[in-house]
Amino acid sequence: MNSCGHYGNHANCIESVPIFGSLSREEMLEIAHIASSQTFEKHDMVYMAGDQGGTLFVVYTGRVKISRLNVNGREQVIRVIGPGEFIGELSLFSSLPLTDNAQVLEASTMCVIQGAKLKELMAKYPSIAFKVLDELSRRLEKTENLIETISLSTVSQRLARALLELSEGSQEVLLNMSKGDLASQIGMSQETLSRKLAVLQEEDLIELKGHKRIIIKNRSGLEEMC
Q: Residue 30's domain spans which residues?
């Protein structure tokens, strides 16, 4: 591990994290002082369910998939995070083992912050704790919405809603995960996802461009499906 405390001409991982956004430069230096960097190769596991926590991982570069396995060993993708986002935060508030798996999707660099030291700074700067709790609330809401969508929506409705959300108001979706992971996240098999995407393309609602790019040709049509 290397120090993450160097401040150069470009923002480092500490400065890129929203929960630290309200801190002064001096206060950010305190965070950087207790952080170290760690690099991961594609497919590496950052941590696995059952591991002891107590560490906050901040993504500086790359992407990480957060997932769980059900009793049958089937993977449920919860989310994919990128630069500026963090994982392992629940272990800051609980002594229980971690419940998720965190796997690197591409070569990544992370800032690693020991929870005990971070909690000391939370006591000193309550704004950090409030922002962590705010992010936890947002993630809980997204997870509850995902559960509701999988439980109450048809496969076609789930896919249409996912495409609209991923487009973020634009006419294009650039997938930040594999289609297999997207299928898992919205509760269907990869074969079903491919078949449904083909149907949407035949209906001229979307246009598939390679493996990662999807053009939305009829947004109102997708909205009606939801």
A: 10-136
pLDDT band at 1, cuts 50/70/90?
very low
| Number of domains present in the structure of the chain | 2
Whether 119 and 195 share a structural domain: no
Tokens 């994982």 belong to 87
* Residues near 132 by beta carbon (within 8 Å), at least 6 away in sequence: 19, 89, 92, 122
pLDDT score recorded for residue 20: 77
Structure tokens at 4: 């993450």
CA separation for the pair 153, 163 (Å, rounded): 14
Percent share of the chain, pLDDT over 70: 94
87 lies in some domain: yes
- For 125-149, what is the mean pLDDT? 82
Choosing from 81, 104, 136, the residue where a domain stops is 136
- Tokens found for residue 173: 């979706």
Rounded (5°) CA angle 26-32-34? 115
